[in-house]
Design brief:
86% helix; 0% strand; 226 residues
Length: 226
């Protein structure tokens, strides 16, 4: 399959879940700005983030991006039965916890550079740096390669063999383009929130996105088997 075909297939697969995800994120933001009764809940998450900083980012992202998706995969019997579930559990939790610290640092760096006001100019600038620099050159490869290592049963040699020309010139660009479809609107919504609520909203969006992909991939596998 050519890179153009791979990207087209990925965009087609991610279009509907991406729209659902963006609607979900937009609803959360609208509730924050227009439903006063919800303010205590948002404030509670904001206080937690402000109080515990990177520790909150690690624990919350490990929970929403790692633990919940792992529990879904385990309970739906989507994990390889020939493999021990514990190493996978450790990978999901530790990997996404560290990613949470990374994303939190990046959001703070963006805030230091561009401020935290939710004007169109500030949001557009942050989204451009986020998606076309950070995501394209670091986030997408640094997530795809560790997941490839997991698929290779944590075998570094097998993973190294899989890191071939096709991986870098087809797989990575496909991941980047499909992520843009979903995350450009999503991070636009995240950056519209106050500083201490950006990571909590990112966590919810991330969790929802990973679960959607898990369901979508399961349906795809079932169709293939049939």
């Amino acid at each position: 399959m050519s890179i153009k075909s791979s990207i087209a297939a990925a965009l087609k697969q991610n279009l509907l879940p991406g729209l659902v995800l963006q609607f979900f994120a937009l609803i959360l933001v609208l509730i924050y700005f227009y439903v006063p009764a919800a303010q205590p809940t948002y404030a509670w998450f904001g206080v937690l983030k402000h109080t515990y900083g990177s520790l909150y980012a690690f624990i919350a992202t490990a929970f929403f991006g790692g633990l919940i998706p792992f529990l879904y995969l385990w309970s739906s019997k989507r994990l390889d039965s020939s493999r021990s579930a514990f190493p996978l559990f450790l990978f999901y939790v530790v990997f996404w916890g560290l990613k949470g610290i990374e994303v939190d640092f990046f959001y703070q760096l963006q805030g230091h550079w561009f401020g935290y006001d939710n004007t169109l100019k500030t949001i557009a600038t942050k989204v451009a740096v986020d998606q076309f620099i950070y995501s394209a050159f670091w986030a997408a490869p640094s997530i795809t390669i560790p997941y490839l290592w997991v698929e290779c049963h944590f075998n570094f040699r097998a993973c190294g063999v899989a890191l071939n020309k096709s991986f870098f010139f087809e797989k990575i660009p496909t991941v980047i383009f499909s992520n843009w479809l979903v995350w450009i609107p999503a991070v636009s919504i995240v950056y519209s929130m106050p500083q201490d609520l950006q990571i909590p909203l990112f966590n919810l969006v991330l969790c929802f996105w990973v679960l959607i992909l898990a369901v979508l991939n399961k349906k795809s596998e079932t169709t293939t088997q049939e």
